[in-house]
Write a sequence for this structure.
């Protein structure tokens, strides 16, 4: 939410805090400020200028050669490319030597043979918006040469507030003013509108206006207003203003909107946008002459209906979407955006002003289905104050009268099918003290809540009955919510920070959570960094489709974690980082039963590439290889309780190079993971990147159980070692050989260490020589050579029978 500091102070005259202090106080109240933007920081050199003459550039069809009065006493020649420059127009002007946002300095230059002594500026060039279609024309009384910043009131600070979804009351200048004004709501007042030529019409409306409330239908200025779906439209006000003159807004109004990053459109639309950002109530203006009937029907869309919205897009409407319709067709998507067929244009003379209250959930569904988010929908789907609607409607009518002229019908229609009554909540001071840890009496609670608009109906020592204001009806619904408000206003920094008595938790930790913590420690100790990637994925990386995806590029829920880590690796490559070690613990999704929810599984994924160790002068940096990957898989398998033989060659995983792929199996033979060298076509890697290794394992609660370590006394007797060089067929995994050795070696076989692999002369084709060192030891005596030789003989016999492995001579 963008807030203008000057605008805020006009609503809270007693506010003397500087912008920095405002930011600090808002943060303490639960609305942190993301940025303070000084609007005049880079445009102090800009002055007001009047174009005396504008003619076509003699050497360029799309350029104009202008004579400009910038208050210097001489007429300046300026080349301009904007289509809207005209004689007599007032514009911001950057003279030679002036600096613009982005570090641009204006210099005297020749453009297509004509000298240009400065630049007429657009809103985007001044950092005041995105509009770059033409230069920024000003409307009002200005003197050439005066400071642009001072003339239009841009000596202001934009306060960017991070408003959480449960606090829609802060989505306006009024809402922020209530939080900051001395005395709270009592210190907030609507600033008077600048006097204009139509001030008498404003005075007359203020004196004569009356809101006629009906439960189903009402009429205003000959317009019949009917709510056909009161579940989705809770209240609808309509005001008629006749004889308006649509045109540019006066500069004070345009400046207010630019200060919060909005582009002025015309005086009627700007008046509705001003009211929205001042009071938080969305409004919409219809061209009354373009409404058939004239009639307003608030109803659900019919099958096959469509509307071209104000952004020029044709949108198909689904049955059930709430629309504002005239006698024959939709003219607006309720709570989201108006339609082109009823928009206010320069030819508009009579206006119907809408001020409505729509169901938040229905607005959210419509907005998502249409893929269309607006300032109005953003507020409607979070909740708008039903008690502030009359104030907002009056304010908008008076503003339109002030800036666009005309006369307002004194009667304002108010269709209100079922009045929304404010909630009354009981608050116990004892409960507040128990939750907050400090004594808070009833008088103090009254003093803390009243400035926020809460009305204390009854105040006793044991309990208070508190009426919730309309602007807080969406987030304050329980006693604990009121206690949270007490804590906010008491001041979080005022609570004591000492450790007090507490009751230990008896609920056991979730096994998966414990396992995740162990794995994090395990991998961080090996130099890996944890990554967090989104659960959304492209269609090629997920099987579960999202009903309302945030973007077409992320329309599915991910089926695995490793593709997301590959994207993060690509991001690192793009920044020149070649040594990367990342892991992620997260959720993957698979389709569930028909009509059911997706199946979620917790996974661990790891990816790494580059050098095994940091560069050092003592030895060259060696890259990771397949043995690093296999060793990590085996270590993880042991950590997860899967046993020593859980890692097997695979060769069928599509993400990896087949000859360098492995699978991880549980003791029951179920595959729970995979790993290997990532295939080059699966990664957008630069030419200098090394081999990329990855793995992914599905976690389960059973893996969290760790066997209790058993104590073994240090050996008191020496070991006997035997080295065996074995001819192993290429198709026989070394793990299978080792498992057979361990099974046949007997109780005294303590260790098996492979220490050499050889291919070449003396080794038959299709085999390789693997040398193992077997270590035998007894706990109670020294073994004899005969006992060890007997065990070796059993080993060789089993290897020959089960695998065709022979001892190399």
């Amino acid at each position: 939410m963008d807030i203008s500091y000057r605008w805020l102070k006009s609503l809270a005259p007693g506010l003397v805090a500087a912008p920095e202090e405002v930011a600090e106080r808002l943060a303490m109240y639960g609305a942190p400020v993301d940025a303070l933007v000084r609007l005049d920081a880079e445009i102090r050199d800009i002055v007001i200028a009047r174009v005396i003459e504008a003619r076509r550039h003699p050497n360029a069809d799309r350029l104009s050669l202008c004579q400009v009065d910038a208050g210097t006493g001489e007429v300046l020649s300026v080349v301009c490319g904007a289509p809207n420059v005209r004689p007599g127009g007032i514009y911001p002007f950057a003279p030679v030597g002036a600096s613009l946002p982005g570090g641009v300095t204006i210099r005297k230059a020749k453009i297509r043979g004509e000298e240009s002594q400065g630049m007429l500026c657009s809103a985007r060039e001044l950092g005041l918006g995105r509009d770059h279609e033409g230069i920024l024309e000003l409307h009002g009384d200005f003197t050439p040469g005066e400071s642009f910043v001072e003339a239009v009131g841009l000596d202001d600070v934009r306060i960017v507030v991070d408003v959480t979804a449960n606090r829609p009351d802060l989505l306006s200048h009024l809402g922020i003013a209530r939080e900051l004004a001395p005395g709270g709501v009592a210190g907030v007042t609507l600033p008077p509108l600048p006097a204009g030529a139509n001030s008498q019409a404003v005075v007359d409306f203020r004196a004569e206006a009356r809101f006629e409330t009906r439960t189903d239908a009402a009429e205003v200025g000959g317009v019949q207003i009917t709510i056909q779906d009161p579940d989705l439209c809770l209240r609808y006000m309509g005001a008629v203003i006749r004889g308006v003159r649509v045109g540019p807004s006066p500069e004070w109004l345009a400046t207010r909107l630019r200060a919060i990053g909005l582009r002025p459109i015309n005086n009627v639309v700007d008046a509705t946008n001003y009211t929205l950002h001042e009071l938080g109530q969305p409004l919409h203006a219809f061209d009354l002459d373009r409404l058939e009937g004239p009639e307003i029907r608030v109803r659900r869309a019919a099958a096959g209906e469509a509307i071209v919205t104000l952004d020029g897009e044709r949108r198909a409407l689904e049955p059930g979407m709430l629309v504002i319709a005239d006698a024959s067709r939709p003219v607006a998507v309720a709570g989201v955006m108006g339609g082109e067929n009823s928009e206010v244009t320069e030819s508009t003379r009579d206006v119907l002003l809408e001020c409505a209250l729509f169901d938040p959930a229905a607005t959210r569904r419509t907005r998502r289905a249409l893929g269309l988010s607006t300032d109005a929908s953003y507020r409607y789907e979070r909740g708008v104050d039903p008690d502030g609607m009359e104030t907002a409607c009056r304010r908008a009518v008076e503003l339109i009268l002030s800036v666009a002229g005309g006369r307002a019908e004194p009667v304002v229609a108010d269709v209100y099918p079922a009045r929304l009554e404010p909630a009354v909540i009981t608050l116990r001071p004892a409960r507040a003290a128990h939750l907050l840890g400090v004594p808070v009496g009833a008088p103090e609670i009254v003093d803390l809540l009243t400035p926020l608009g809460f009305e204390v109906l009854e105040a006793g020592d044991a309990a208070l009955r508190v009426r919730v204001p309309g602007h807080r009806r969406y987030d304050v619904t329980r006693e604990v919510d009121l206690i949270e408000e007490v804590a906010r206003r008491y001041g979080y920094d005022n609570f004591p920070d000492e450790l007090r008595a507490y009751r230990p938790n008896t609920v056991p930790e979730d096994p998966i959570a414990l396992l995740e913590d162990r794995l994090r420690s395990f991998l961080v100790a090996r130099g890996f960094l944890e990554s967090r990637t989104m659960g959304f994925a492209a269609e090629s990386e997920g099987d579960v489709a999202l009903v309302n995806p945030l973007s077409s590029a992320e329309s599915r829920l991910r089926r695995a974690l490793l593709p997301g880590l590959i994207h993060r690796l690509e991001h690192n490559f793009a920044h020149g980082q070649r040594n990367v070690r990342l892991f992620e613990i997260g959720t993957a999704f698979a389709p569930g039963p028909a009509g059911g929810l997706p199946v979620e599984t917790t996974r661990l994924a790891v990816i790494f590439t580059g050098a095994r160790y940091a560069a050092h002068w003592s030895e060259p940096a060696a890259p990771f290889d397949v043995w690093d990957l296999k060793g990590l898989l085996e270590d993880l398998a042991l950590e997860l309780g899967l046993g020593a033989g859980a890692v097997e060659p695979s060769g069928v995983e599509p993400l990896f190079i087949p000859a360098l792929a492995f699978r991880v199996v549980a003791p029951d033979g179920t595959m729970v993971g995979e790993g290997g060298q990532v295939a080059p076509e699966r990664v957008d890697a630069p030419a200098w990147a090394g081999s990329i290794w990855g793995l992914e394992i599905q976690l389960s609660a059973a893996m969290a159980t760790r066997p209790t370590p058993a104590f073994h006394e240090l050996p008191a007797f020496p070991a006997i070692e035997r080295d065996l060089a074995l001819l192993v067929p290429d198709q026989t995994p070394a793990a299978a050989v080792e498992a057979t050795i361990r099974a046949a070696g007997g109780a005294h076989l303590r260790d098996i260490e492979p220490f050499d692999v050889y291919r070449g002369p003396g080794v038959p084709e299709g085999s390789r020589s693997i040398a193992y060192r077997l270590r035998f030891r007894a706990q109670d005596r020294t073994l004899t050579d005969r006992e060890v030789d007997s065990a070796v003989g059993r080993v060789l016999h089993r290897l020959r029978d089960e695998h065709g492995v022979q001892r190399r001579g």
Notes: Residues 518 and 639 are 9 Å apart (CA to CA). The longest helix spans residues 785-803. The chain has 18 helices and 43 strands. The longest strand covers residues 580-590.
